[in-house]
Amino acid sequence: MRVIHFILAGALLMGGGVAQAERLSPEAKLAKILDGRVAGAPVNCIQLYNIQSSEIVDKTAIVYRGRNGTLYVNRVNGSAAFLDDDDILVSKTYSSQLCSIDIIQLVDRSSRMSSGSVSLGEFIPYPKPPKTAAAH
Fold this sequence. Notes:
Elements: H1 2-22, H2 26-33, E1 45-47, E2 51-57, E3 61-66, E4 71-74, E5 87-91, E6 97-99, E7 103-108, E8 114-119, E9 123-126
Antiparallel strand pairs: 1-6, 2-3, 3-4, 4-9, 5-7, 7-8
C-alpha cells in the first residue's frame, strides 16, 4: 500500500512539472486567444445582453466574448496588478451597458472575499475572422 502512495506522489510531481513548463505568459495567453483576429476601433461601451462570457488574463486584461463571436479586450485603467485569472468579476451596472467608466469588483474564488477592484478602460473589439473558402 505504501508503494502505491509513493508511485502516485511521484506521478503527481512529474505531471506538475510538465504543466508548469507549458504555462504561457499572460501576454502570450492573450495573443493565443486573439490569434487570427484584427483589432477594430475602440468603443466606450458594450451591450450586456450581447456578452456571453468573460475571462481574466492574469495581470493583463479582461476578455469579454460576444454572442456574435466578437472578443472585446479591456485593458483596465491604471494597474492591472489586481487581475487574477482565478477571481470572479462582479459588476454593478445601472444601465444595459458595460462602459469604460465602470468599476469592477474582484472576488477571490476560494474565500469569497473581495480581492480588489479595477476601473475599466476602452473595449477593443476583435471580430471573428471571416471564413475562408477551402482550396480545391
